[in-house]
């Protein structure tokens, strides 16, 4: 049977179709519809207006492209608009049904909103049903047109037909706004006591929406809800329980009421449901109404939380549900999970909690990934309540770390991290490290981060810390962040008796895992610092195997690393520094080292080229300075580094002031807050310490600009942090008589100079008449390596007048300032400080530091000594030069810090001097 369809130009808003179908040797004329228009005469079988919804859906689904679908929708919308404009009541419900389908496809249907209101106002149930359905789909609570339907809904809530009442309640529960809630709450409250259970159920659900929109109306529903909780009909009971739970969340008065009046009743209901016989209308997988089970457990959790009496009353039924519910069905597992969460939320009951955690342990052995995931989530909450009970399932949790599902692996790893403590850190870390060897590449990043954090947090001793970090770096060094190997180096520098062990362990590790770049960096750094210990086996421990390494072998590691194609710029730069240091430690290999460095003098990378040229010059032309430049790094401040990583202290503030920090496997050393603390001046809108150039420099160098104790092979005694700075900058070590001057100059200018200015000041010494030394008239940068000139003595001049003031005084120390002016230079003030010891003990290692605001320039000369006799039998003097750029407008202010030792104990005193005359 065939059809021939011909389409002509549209007449009015419709296309004209002629359908010809052979039938009994002729045409069935009843198929044709003749209509006369003022524009055209056409024959058609049907119009778009009369198309049924099933035909429209069929036409849309038959569209092969999105353009065809849009064309069908566009034609249908045009027909619906025409019907709406003609106010045709016969097809209004059909048009709205089409609009709802078009709306679900994502096309705009706002033009049909008023049709919903017209259908709702119709007297018949079919029209109201379509109207309310369209109201819920096409409108929401933000639409202003919704105010027009409030009166219709109110009338329908009082309708004699319970099905129409149900339609109104359903619509109100979906789109109710705050204004509608206030207007219609009395009708909904009345319907909570309606004779039909379906209406009571829908009224309860509608009440949930109302109290969420207007919490002030909660008290109106308390008594009706208490009656709903006694219902026998499961549908009404489950909605009443949910309404009770929501009322407890929005009203504390309702919570207390239900605790006192309804807890026992809800416990009885749960007991009846749990022990009820088989009921086919409620049975799911052999369990009677698991949805009601879960709702009852949730509301009991709300009532029992924070109330011991309510918790005691539900303990027995919770234990019964936890032990009797079958766990081989999904419905039973859902009930058990809610029961466990309820047990964990109510007040303490140790036996119940152990039972709940054991249930979660069984969940971990389930083959369903979803059940294992929710069990891991719940165990993470339970560990804060009963850690010992969770520890019993440690082996099962570790197996989940090896699971094939990435989400379970990640969650299990987070749980293992929470399980670790001082007693189990070694076995758990061993398990995780062994799994690191076979873990997937995408999981190694998270796993290494957790292992490193565990080792750093719970390390019992430094040798174990070093061993574990070497394992991680050897297995997954490329997945480790830079902070990890930075921390390893800090720990190694603080463990003086493990320097040899560390460098030998790193040497062994890099032989087998040289492709791990972070391992290579740590090894190259340690070989450069402690290369002679590697060769001579200094500090060999009993647990070590004998290792024979020659100077050439140590150089091979560095040379292989610098030439490796996988190493980046940072690693190669570190290799060049290590080679420079090894040239001092291995004099016999100096020529080979020089040849290796010389290969990078023509490097296209400017950083490598500059380092190679400078280091080559040091080896060839400045051998007298090489040993000073290649000295070991000072001991890095472990406490400050850890605090900065954890974010617990500012980057430039030490974790303790004047307190000796005892470090395992290392010597005790004082932790003195850096000079940047002196910058805490709220004057002249000075920049905050966090933005000062000094702190940026300190962050770059990773050391404190304060004196630290450094034990060297030559027993050089104490060295200042400034010497470490000069060593890092490859500038050289200043002469002994100028070290204090350099440190004081740096401390006085760090608050108002950028890092480059500080370097410039180190090189040019901006004191009056200071000259940069040169050789042969050349002023190249390499000439800075010849040392720093000493500061010229300051001439006091015969100023107009001399005056003095007691700048600082404590129970043990007195500081007096005498000042004078230079003729013709009123901005500059010469100050001589005199320190007197008032106590009965001698002060040793005496250091004076000072800082000034931005508008001042401060220069300190070396102190006359570093030992202050007791009882005022002597004094220490120190000269200062202050230049005031705001002379006459602002007076001199100064923050000072004085550190010394009394009976080998560090003492730190601070103060601020504000009593200078304004004319200074």
What does this structure look like?
The chain has 920 residues and is of the alpha+beta class. Among the domains are: 450-646, Leucine-rich Repeat Variant, CATH 1.25.10; 805-913, Sandwich (Immunoglobulin-like), CATH 2.60.40. The strands form six sheets. Strands 9-10-11-14-13 form a five-stranded antiparallel β-sheet. It has a three-stranded antiparallel β-sheet with strand order 12-15-16. It has a two-stranded antiparallel sheet with strand order 1-2. The chain is elongated and about 110 Å long. The model is unreliable at 1-48 and 648-801 (pLDDT under 50).
CATH class of the domain at 450-646: Mainly Alpha
User: Total number of β-strand segments?
Assistant: 16
Q: What class would the helix/strand composition place it in?
A: alpha+beta
Distance linking N and C termini: 114 Å
C-alpha geometry: elongated
Average pLDDT number: 78
Please mark out the parts with pLDDT under 50 across 5 or more consecutive residues, or reply none: 1-48, 648-801
Proportion of helical residues? 40-55%
CATH topology of the domain at 450-646: Leucine-rich Repeat Variant
Rg, Å, rounded:
43 Å
Separate helix tally: 37
Strand numbers in spatial order across the main sheet: 9-10-11-14-13
CATH architecture tag of the domain at 450-646 = Alpha Horseshoe
Strand content: 5-15%
Biggest sheet statistics: 5 strands, antiparallel
Keywords: Cytoplasmic vesicle, Golgi apparatus, Membrane, Protein transport, Transport
Organism: Nicotiana tabacum (Common tobacco)
Membrane topology: Peripheral membrane protein
Main location: membrane
């Amino acid at each position: 049977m065939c059809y021939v369809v011909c389409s002509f130009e549209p007449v009015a808003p419709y296309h004209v179709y002629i359908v010809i179908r052979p039938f009994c040797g002729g045409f069935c004329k009843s198929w044709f519809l003749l209509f006369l228009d003022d524009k055209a005469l056409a024959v058609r079988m049907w119009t778009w207006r009369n198309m049924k919804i099933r035909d429209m859906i069929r036409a849309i689904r038959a569209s092969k492209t999105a353009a065809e679908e849009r064309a069908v929708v566009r034609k249908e919308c045009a027909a619906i608009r025409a019907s709406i404009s003609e106010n045709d009541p016969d097809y209004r419900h059909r048009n709205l049904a089409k609009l709802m389908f078009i709306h679900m496809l994502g096309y705009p249907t706002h033009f049909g909103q008023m049709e919903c209101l017209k259908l709702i106002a119709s007297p018949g149930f079919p029209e109201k049903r379509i109207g309310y359905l369209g109201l819920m789909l096409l409108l929401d609570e933000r639409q202003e047109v919704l105010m027009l339907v409030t009166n219709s809904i109110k009338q329908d809530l009082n309708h004699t037909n319970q099905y129409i009442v149900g339609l109104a309640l359903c619509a109100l529960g979906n789109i109710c706004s705050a204004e509608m809630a206030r207007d219609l709450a009395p009708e909904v409250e009345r319907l909570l006591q309606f004779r039909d259970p379906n209406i009571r159920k829908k009224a309860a659900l509608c009440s949930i929406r109302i109290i969420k929109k207007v919490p002030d109306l909660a008290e109106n529903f308390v008594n009706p809800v208490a009656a709903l909780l006694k219902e026998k009909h499961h549908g009404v009971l489950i909605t009443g329980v949910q309404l009770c739970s929501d009322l407890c969340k929005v009203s504390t008065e309702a919570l207390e009421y239900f605790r006192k009046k309804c807890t026992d009743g809800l416990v009885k209901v749960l007991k009846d449901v749990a022990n009820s016989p088989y009921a086919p209308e409620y049975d799911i997988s052999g369990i009677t109404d698991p949805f009601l089970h879960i709702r009852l457990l949730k509301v009991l959790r709300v009532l029992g939380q924070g109330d011991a009496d309510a918790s005691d009353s539900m303990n027995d039924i919770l234990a019964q549900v936890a032990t009797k519910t079958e766990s081989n069905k999904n419905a039973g597992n859902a009930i058990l999970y809610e029961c466990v969460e309820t047990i964990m939320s109510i007040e303490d009951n140790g036996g119940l909690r152990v039972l709940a955690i054991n249930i979660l342990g069984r969940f971990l052995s389930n083959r369903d990934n979803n059940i294992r995931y929710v069990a891991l989530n719940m165990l993470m909450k339970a560990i804060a309540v009963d850690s010992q009970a969770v520890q019993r399932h440690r082996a099962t949790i570790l197996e989940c770390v090896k699971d094939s599902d990435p989400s379970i692996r990640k969650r299990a790893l987070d749980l293992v991290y929470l399980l670790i403590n001082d007693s189990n850190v070694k076995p758990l870390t061993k398990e995780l490290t062994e799994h690191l060897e076979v873990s997937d590449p995408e999981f190694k990043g998270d796993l290494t981060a957790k292992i490193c954090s565990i080792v750093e947090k719970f390390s019992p001793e430094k040798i174990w810390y070093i061993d574990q970090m070497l394992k991680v770096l050897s297995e997954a060094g490329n997945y480790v962040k830079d902070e990890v190997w930075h921390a390893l180096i800090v720990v190694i520098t603080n463990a003086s008796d493990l320097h040899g062990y560390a460098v030998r362990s790193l040497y062994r590790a890099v032989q087998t895992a040289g492709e791990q770049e972070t391992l290579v960096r740590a090894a190259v750094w340690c070989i450069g610092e402690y290369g002679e210990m590697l060769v001579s086996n200094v500090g060999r421990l009993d647990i070590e195997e004998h290792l024979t390494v020659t100077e050439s072998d140590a150089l091979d590691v560095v040379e292989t690393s610098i030439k490796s194609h996988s190493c980046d710029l940072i690693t190669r730069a570190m290799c060049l520094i290590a080679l420079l240091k090894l040239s001092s430690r291995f004099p016999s290999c100096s020529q080979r080292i020089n040849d290796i460095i010389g290969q990078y003098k023509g490097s296209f990378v400017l950083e490598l080229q500059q380092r190679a040229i400078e280091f080559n010059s040091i080896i060839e032309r400045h051998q007298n300075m090489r040993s000073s430049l290649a000295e070991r790094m000072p001991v890095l401040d472990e406490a400050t580094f850890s605090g900065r990583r954890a974010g617990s202290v500012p980057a430039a503030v030490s974790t303790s002031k004047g307190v000796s920090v005892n470090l395992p496997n290392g010597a005790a050393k004082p932790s003195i807050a850096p000079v940047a603390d002196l910058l805490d001046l709220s004057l002249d809108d000075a920049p905050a310490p966090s933005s000062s150039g000094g702190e940026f420099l300190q962050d770059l160098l990773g050391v404190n600009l304060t004196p630290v104790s450094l034990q060297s092979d030559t027993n050089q005694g104490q060295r200042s942090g400034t010497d470490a700075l000069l060593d890092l900058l490859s500038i050289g070590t200043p002469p002994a008589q100028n070290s204090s001057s350099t440190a004081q100059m740096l401390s006085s200018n760090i608050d108002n100079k950028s890092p480059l200015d500080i370097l410039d000041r180190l090189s040019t010494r901006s004191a009056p008449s200071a000259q940069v030394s040169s050789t042969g008239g050349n002023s190249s940068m390499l000439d800075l390596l010849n040392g720093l000139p000493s500061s010229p003595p300051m001439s006091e001049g015969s100023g107009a007048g001399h005056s003095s003031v007691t700048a600082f005084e404590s129970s043990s120390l007195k500081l007096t300032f005498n000042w004078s002016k230079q003729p013709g230079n009123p901005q500059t003030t010469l100050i001589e400080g005199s320190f007197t010891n008032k106590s009965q003990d001698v002060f040793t290692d005496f250091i004076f530091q000072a800082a000034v605001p931005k508008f001042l320039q401060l220069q300190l000369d070396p102190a006359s000594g570093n030992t202050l006799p007791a009882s005022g039998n002597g004094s220490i003097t120190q000269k200062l030069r202050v230049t005031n750029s705001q002379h006459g407008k602002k007076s001199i202010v100064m923050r000072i810090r004085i550190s010394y030792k009394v009976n080998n104990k560090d003492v730190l005193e601070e103060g601020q001097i504000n009593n200078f005359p304004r004319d200074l």
